[in-house]
Amino acid sequence: MFGQMVYRPLVERPAAPPAPVGMQPHSRAHGWDETSERSIKVDPNVNLSLCVGEGSLTVNGWNRNEVRIFVSKGSKFSFRVQMKSPKTGEPALILAVSEAEAKNKAGSWSECLHGEEIEIDAPPGAVVNLKGQETTTVVDGIRRVSIKNAGGDISIRNVSAGVSAVTYNGDLTVEQSSGPMSLETTRGNILAFDVGPSEIGDLFKAKTSSGAISVQKLQFRQTEINSISGTVVYNGEIQTGGSYSFGTSNGTIRLTLPLDSACTIWASYGGAFNSEFPLKIMTEDLKGGWVKSITASIGKANNTMLRLTTNNGSISINKQQ
Amino acid sequence: MRQDCLEIGTIQAFIDGELGSKDVTRVSAHVAVCDSCAFMLGEAEDESAVVFPALEREFNSLVPTQRLWNKINDSLTEERQSRPFWQKLWGTLSAGLLTPSMAAAASLIIVVGVVALALINRGLTPTQTASTRPVVTSVSPSSSASTDRVISPTTPESTIDPVAPPARIERADYRPVVHRSPATVSDVPAAAKDTSSAYMPGEESYVRTIASLSRTIADQKDNTIRGSERMSFERDLAVVDDAITKMRAEVRKNPRNESAKQVLYSSYQNKIDLLNSVSQKEELVASLK
Q1: Which residue in the set A104, A247, A288 is minimally distant from B289, CB to CB?
Q2: pLDDT tens digits for A135-158?
Q3: pTM across the whole model
Q4: Helix (H, G, I), strand (E, B), or coil: what is residue A53?
Q5: ipTM tops 0.85
Q6: Contact between residue B229 and residue B277 where contact means Cβ atoms under 8 Å apart
Q7: If residue B122 lies in a helix (H) or strand (E), which one and from where to where?
Q8: I want to staple B240 with a disulfide (CB 3.0 to 4.6 A). Which of A40, A59, B78, B271 is the partner?
């Protein structure tokens, strides 16, 4: 399920000749108008870092110990080898930096890659660290990824050993991936589907300020999901011994659990509390002014804990069909 | 003094070489037989010997500089110290006023003096009392003799007295005056602004962090988040503030309401995260430039 790699043959893309003046309106203004491609032989577990100033970015895993970057209608770039692997002698820590011959809007030299489209192919064991402005990012089939974008959607698939993704304005989607996960967007929705830990103790965190969080088929035992003004939807198993926290200030929490689920629920809510599961109530406070609370258990008592908090919304716990 | 004694002006003109040959002969002859005029001539020569070397470079350069005034002042001070008061006064006035160059110099000295007095008076007016001046407190109880000057947060920096002693920032025990008043916490919900003693355990650190972050991003957010993004931010902030206000009221009503406490703390944390996101975005964008 996790880390399924798809072999992508290297497509030879000879560097395009210099484009005529006026052909690339967005990059022409900056003096970046070239289509370029470079590759470098690397260690299988290479760590690649780069920043993207402009353009959509795609990172793909391929079955070659080689990193290739293709930039269309953008800046020239080069690789900087920071460290070589003692085992293989190949580059293990590399940077991709722009060879910009023009200054950016702020008047300073930028090392960020610019282009209409930026494609990166890296070994399946690669770790990729990305920073970007308004950048649409797609990552597929590598070992670990860390992304921090000022804006733009992020879509991640088939990452085997951890995801850290932040966008301050955009949606965030993670599928079929494993490892510790930290997903954060300030304004946007978060969707996580079929994700789980790669090691015991891995944590899943998802946080948005303005947006909904939807999680399905999650296999983490340690889970923190929080939104300020958005709905939280969870559809999946509750792992024995797990600790789950779902919170929203101004939204609804909807859980859909398997029929045989067993856990203890501590819920604090401002609206209504509904459960399709029979509850064994331990404590209940319905007289509180702004906040009501309930502590109850579902199924056989165990040490699995669900903490549900919504200030102004309702909570519903439903059975999976 | 004899009736035909020379005037001080004539003596000074004699020294300055401004007399004609006839007058020079006359003065020389008189000084040779008149003790008082000889004494006056000696005094005037002494003065010239003191003042003119000091002025030499300035006169040669033809550009009066601060160095000129320093040298004049030094020379005059030195002279004053070595002579009786009446002699200094008399010699300076008579020599200075009768010589155009010295008259100009004296005038300038007077002007400088008047300006200096005016500046001093302006900086320390008699009506300026301790209550209107920056707060001065003794921070270290063990050293009552040493006091530190601490500027009250309510005193704008521009009103700092220019003649007051400089703040002793090198002291290890220097501490700014800490105003615990919630008034400094501008972004704290109204319910949290009562007194610091009303804080629950750990709450005060949340409040302080929020206040600090609010101040930090006050300017940043105008540049960092705009349009609909800004609207979302403000809406979320309002949602969190509302939650904090409600939960705090709930906790005050019933301090044993653990649920309300939990929600209150998580709302504080939400607000911190929200405010942090602005500065983090600013940092990210700056790092990409």
Answers
A1: A104
A2: 999 999 999 999 999 999 999 999
A3: 0.63
A4: strand
A5: no
A6: no
A7: helix B100-123
A8: B271
